[in-house]
Structures are given as structure tokens and as C-alpha cells.
Amino acid sequence: MKRLLPILLGxxxxxxxxxxxxxxxxxxxxxxxxxxxxxxxxxxxxxxxxDLWMVTGLYETLLxxxxxxxxxxxxxxxxxxxxxxxxxxxxxxxxLKFSDGxxxxxxxxxxxxxxxxxxxxxxxxxxxxxxxxISAEDRKIxxxxxxxDPTIISILATFNTGIMPKAAFEKAAGANDQEKAxxxxxxxxxxxxxxxxxxxxxxxxxxxxRNPNYWRxxxxxxxxxxxxxxxxxxxxxxxxxxLKLQAGEVDAAEFIPFARVGELGAxxxxxxxxxxSTRIVYAPINTRDTRKDGSKNPLADxxxxxxxxxxxxxNVLIKLVTFDTGKPMTSLMSAATQLHYGPEPLYPYxxxxxxxxxxxxxxxxxxxVKLTTLAGSADDxxxxxxxxxxxxxxxxxxxxxxxxxxxxxxxxxxxxxxxxTYGWANDVNDPAQVTGxxxxxxxxxxxxxxxxxxxxxxxxxxxxVEVDPAKRKDEYKKMQEIYAAEAPLLFLFETPFAVAxxxxxxxxxxxxxxxxxxxxxxxxx
Amino acid sequence: xxxxxxxxxxxxQIIPTFLLVMVFIxxxxxxxxxxxxxxxxxxxxxxxQLEQIRHNLGLDQPLPIQFLVFVKNTLxxxxxxxxxxxxxxxxxxxxxxxxxxxxxxxxxxLAVCLAxxxxxxxxxxxxxxxDIAIRGVFQVGLSMPxxxxxxxxxxxxxxxxxxxxxxxxxxxxxxxxxHLILPALSVALYTSAIILRNLRASLIxxxxxxxxxFARAKGLAxxxxxxxxxxxxxxVSTVTLLGLSIGNLMSGTLVTETVFAVPGVxxxxxxxxxxxxxxxxxxxxxxxxxxxxxxFLLTDVVQxxxxxxxxxx
Lengths: 525, 313
Prior knowledge:
The structure holds two protein chains of two kinds. Chain A has 17 helices and 24 strands. Chain A is an alpha+beta fold.
């Protein structure tokens, strides 16, 4: 016994120190500095990133995006898709409650999903376009589809299908849905997610309080979230946001400019988080035979587009613009997107090959191209000067045109550009959204490039009703190969989401889709 | 005090100004390239969705019709709904305006408190070392952009010395005073430089004037000479300048409010422009026009009180 005691003591001490290093502490407030404020956090009306990245904090979906990108159970225990792909059934977990303690039932689910798919209401109704009818019987939810839709499972984990309380919403004052939504949120809404909205001052601040009835358990077996409250402060200016963090007035600041990642990473009080993202930076190339002004477009020739891609040293751009936080694109979609296929970086730097391709295209004498960039963007200015130098030896005379964001959007839509800068982050955990956006002609003329590839279009259409996961995967592989070879883009790089967090905060996550997830964040005391 | 008819005339003069402002702003925002529907939909919407958005906003109507609707609604106090914030423009502006007015008044008071005594000191010891030193320091203030002064103040006083908060907005009067000290100070440093230069010059001029010399010769007490003769005359041009600089200050809030994260109408204007939020830009511009007109009117009233000769002209 005498010999056993020290061992037991030692073991107990060891255990105590081990748990104190990992033990999660509950309670406390976290203050988060945002670059922009939300305007509406209603799952259906949210349309800008600062809105939709907050929605899942307030409204839980039937299914959830897991940390590894796979779909996990949310409010539903799981899902089942019928053999013909036309029926999806889900069963709600038992004993679910809203933040006010009222039960969360099938009627709330039918109400929320019907609202989400009403094209008169939100901009995202199309995501549920395949749904014909939603019905509920006790805890069993049935979605009947007009046609098989392989994306439906991901959609049920997407912010706009967050489950709202039917009774509380309908009770809100107002003649129509829009007015009711406003009154409902102004009054401090009843929620199903980890938090409720405690207070807000438009343009300035917002507070989320812990939802005591949230269903998901934490590591200690008790319900999440760990924090009592998250306070948001809106600080549009990058430098001020960082100063506020350094002064200890906030616990975290998002959208840290890449130029300052190194400096903040060296700060002993901070953790510089670079969360994997689905964000890509690329430059659409106008592939139409003639430009908007009627002149002949050299970029219509695939060899010229390939040549420009080969003549671009992506690694240098990654160093200059992202300060080595980015990585080269390996496909039209980010590596963090499901069904991504891209074994290696696209078009590694090869000026010789670029020259040879231009010779083959009959353009060895050089030509002039215009790059449309965002005025005031330091990143775009860097990109332009670097590209100008990289392409000059090939005789490519790169002109710059600086515009603001709405103007760039309009030029993209009207095809009035040669090449312009652009970026994208997925909103849905499925490759169909980004693929449709970048490559499908009928959607938006393949991100405005005018690229119209019959084989790609057919594959995309087929993949949208393909219920066999293996076949769909194969279709996506082919689409990514075609797209890479045809190069309707200047493929640039992927970037992470850079968030600097105080050392006293653990567990904050920004998901690859950009959502701010505070459900498992906690503060060490 | 100025007569009632003088005030009425000045008020009536404002009406054509507003009409002109309305025509200008209506045309200007529509001449900007870029489409609010595209800005609103964050580029992801289909063409059909964009058409729907434009229809909902009345942007598919011909320009003259849009203008008439705008004027009619404005006259009835309806400034429309913000595209970006999805709420009535009037409501949004009334919500944010007090912050900006608070900041503007705070800056002006700080500027006057800073510039006034120093101008007296400099003028009474014209061309002495003190005078040169004061003018030198303020010349630096004048030659630096407001946002730069702001960033320097932020870095030194807030982030390093931690004397003040790094921007934001408080709750309650005292907390607001504390939170807004740095933005107010950065604007005040610039404004006070202008006031100081002007007030010093006119003080020197007036101190030299015959009627002041005469008053001195009469043996009037220096305090009476100062308040009755010197100050009243020296202030006329300074008040004009102060009025003008409040007008400038309104446009200055665009930058200051963004740097210091102050949720006022200045920052709102910047956001509205980026979002091509026509109703909000129009509403804000009208608000700025009203504010500037009111400030100019008050300036005129104060001036004519200080100098009765101005009432006749």
C-alpha cells in the first residue's frame, strides 16, 4: 500500500494537470470585431456574406456541415434518400426546443422550408428548386422532389434552410412576410441555433446570448455553447480593427490583411488563425470572338489563354499578394470543395511553353490586353504590376483599367472586358454552385466569359440529376479536366480566412464556407 | 437681433438650393456606372432575378418618371426604402444622424477651445517666439490629412498608451464623450488650425485699427476694449470660416467615421455609395444639404448680429 500511494498520487496529479490543460471552461463573453455589419440575419432574406455567415449562429439546419466537410445530423437524426432519388425522409431528434422553450416540431420545419423555397421572398429560393412538397407527420419530415437532386442533402445543411418558429413568426406584427420578418427580428427573435439575438445597434454592434435550449452537447456532456455571450463590433477599417485587438479591447478580429499576418502571428498574446476556405481568386477571360467594341479578341483562342496562364508565375503572386498564405489553384474549385479533382497546380510557370503557344496562335508579334481591376485595392494593384512584368517578354502589352465593385460587376455581365479580377467563396457545401457559376453557359455565360462548351454544359446538366455518387464524381472529374484545359480563367490562387484571436479564446472556427462558428468557442479564465 | 423678414428671406432662398440639389443628386447617382441590382445581389443572381430586383425598385421606369416619383415622395417626407438595409431611409438616417451631429459639435467645441485662447496669445505677442511656435505647430496640423492625424492619435494614444478606446461608440452622454474623443480631436486639430490662423490675423488687424487706438487713448479698461471692440469685430470673419468648416466637416465625417468605426451618417454614405443604394444616397445627400444650409443660415444670423451693416445688404 505504501508503495502504491505515491503511484496513485502521481497518477492523480498527472490526470489533474492533463485535464487542466484541456478542460473547457464555461461562461464569459467574447468580443469579435467584424469588417461589416449584418443587415438581416433572417435565413431567407440574408443575401450578403456578413448576413449569411451569421445565420447559422441563430438558426440550426436539419443537417450540418461537419468539420471534415462531410454532412452530419443536425436537428434531424439522419436522412434517407429513396432509390429513385425523388423522396428524402428525415426524422427530427426527440425533445427539440426553441430558445423560448417552446417545442420544435415538424410544422416548424414545413413552415421554414416552404418559406425558404418561395421565390417571391429570398434570393436563395432556387437552391430548393427541385422540391415539390414538404410534409410532416410527428417527427417524420418528407420532401418530395420533382426530379432527383444530388445537392438536396447539402442544401438541408445550408443557412437558408435554418429552422424558424412558425407560431412566433406568424404572431409578429406586419401585413406581409417582409414586415413580419422585420418585427420578428426587432423584438429579439426566437431561435433554434446555439445563440439568440440579444441586442443590436445597426451599423455599430450586436450581441448574441447563449440559447439555453440548444440541442448539441459539448465535450463536457452539457449543452453547447460554452460562452454566455458574443459581442460584435463593426469596424470597417482594417488598421483600426487590428489596433483594437492589440489594445485588448476585442478578443478577435476578422479579415486580417495578409500583409499583417506575419506581424500578428509573432504577437505572443495572439493566435493568428488561417482557416481553410473555399475562397478562390481568379481572373475571368473574355472568350468571345469579338470584344464589346467589335474588334477581334485574341483571347478567343484557347492557346492564347493557355499561354497567359503559363506566363503567370503563380508562386510569385502568392508571395506578393497573400504573403505566402495562399496556394495555387488546382481546379476551377478550391481544394476544400467536395468532389474537387486536381492532382497538381494548374499551368505551372513555363515562359517557354507560353511563347511557343503564342507562336502557334500566330501572335508572336505581341498584342494588347486590358486588365480591369478594383480601384483602391492594393492586392489588385500588385497583381497588375506583376502580371505586366511577367507578360511583357512575350510582347503582351497589359493595360490597366481601375473601377469600383458595382462597375466591375456590370462590365462582367455585359462582356465589356478582356480580363478582370474576381473572387468567390462557396455558400453551399456542394460543388454544383461554384461549377455552375464558373462554367455553365446557361447560368451566367460561364462567369461572364462567354465560354460555351457543349460537353461541359451537358455534363453539368447530367450531374445535377445524378443520384449515383460514383457517377457524379466521375462527371465532376471530367468537367474539371475540360475546364482546366480550356482555361476560360487566369487561374490564380486559393486564400484562407485570416482571423487573429486572443490567446485567451479557444475553439473559434470560421468554416470553409465562411460562416462564423462560435458554438464551441470558450474563454480560459 | 436680425429682423424676422431677414430670416424669412434667407429661409426662402434655401428652397431653390434644395431643388437644384435634388436634380443634381438624382442625375449623379444614375450617371455612376454600375447597377444597384448587381451590387445588391453580390453578383451571384441570375439575369431574371436582377430584372425582378430592378422592377421592385422601380429602376425599370424611365428617368423622368423616376425623378417625379422621387420629388413627390420627398415632399411627402418619404425618402424611400434603402436597398442595402431594407428599411425606410428616413428611419435609418434619423437613427444615425445624432451620432454625426454629436461628433461635429464635439469637434467644433474642441477646435474653438483650442484655437481661441491660443489665437489671443499669439496675436497679443505677434511675431514673438511664442507666436511663431504656436503657428508652427498648427501649420503642421493643417498640412496633415484628417485620417492620418486620426491614425497617429489611434496608434499612440489608444493602442500604445491605452488612454482612450480605439474608436466605437458608447452608451450615454459621458461614455460618448469618452469614446469620441479621438475622432473629435483629429477633426478638431485640423479645424482649429484654420480658425487659429484666421482669428490671429483679424485680431492683429483690429488691435491696430484706429477705433481701438482711440478707445485706448480714451483710457477704457483693456477688458472692455477687448470684449466690446476687438472681439466683436475680429469674430465676424472667423464665424464665417467656422460655418464653412462645419460644412467641410460633414464631408470629413466620411473618412473619420470609417477610420474610428463611428456609426454615423458619414460612414453610412460611403457604404451606400459602394452598394449603389440610390434611395439612401439621395436621402443622405438631402440631409447633408439641409444640415449645411442650416449651418450657413445660423452663420449668417450670427454674423448679422455681430455686424449690423450686413443686414442692409
